[in-house]
What we know:
By secondary structure, this protein is an alpha+beta fold. The chain has a single domain, classed as 4-Layer Sandwich (Aldehyde Ferredoxin Oxidoreductase,  A, domain 1), CATH 3.60.9.10. 24% of the residues lie in helices and 29% in strands. The longest helix is centred in the first third of the chain and has 13 residues, at 38-50. This is Aldehyde ferredoxin oxidoreductase N-terminal domain-containing protein.
Amino acid sequence: MTLKATGGYTGRILRVDLGREQISEESLDNETLRKYVGGTGLGAKYLYEEVPPGVEWSDADNRIMFFTGPIGGTKVSGSGIFSVVSKGPMTNMAGTSQANGYFGAFLKLSGFDGVIVHGKAKKWLYLHIHDGTAELRDAEHLQGKDTWETEDTIKKGISRQSSVYSIGPAGENLVRFACIAGDHGHVAAHNGLGAVMGSKKLKAIVAERGRQKIAIANPAQMTTAAKV
């Protein structure tokens, strides 16, 4: 299945309400995708529009967002990179962090450009994204585990071709410089955004590698860029 959207994008994002344990989907229009290029640009747009200045980093109304960019999931080197955007604990202001690995590519191949999370869960949960859908799963058994243990435990119950980004005890205990780590060694290390996940009781976010093809506006130029 080929995704129909502006070249390099799916035009779909997920919204996750942890308090209600509800997930919805919305579309991204082409104008927005052209104006706010890449994961950090899209995340900054939604943070500015949806999180008022008075909201604290640990409030339920704060957002934590995971976005990939137009090369995510393509043949270009680095296509697994993604951005995490939120109001972070280090400054209580807008913050972003990027990580390598597979998550950005697998998120796109699962059918989505990004995920916007708000609210606070009543118990520990993780988000599982796969084949154009997503669900919240219980993560109480993962509490206290470090990120490598968390990744290995989650992968025992799903496809091994998955990217798992999670928090360890530092994030769970709201240490203000806590990171988000995944794919056995890649880290979104800046601005303490692991603590934001901890404040929401979101232990991990998981993207399985999907089978969807990504529409490329100019395949020949993409091939040339991939050789650079």
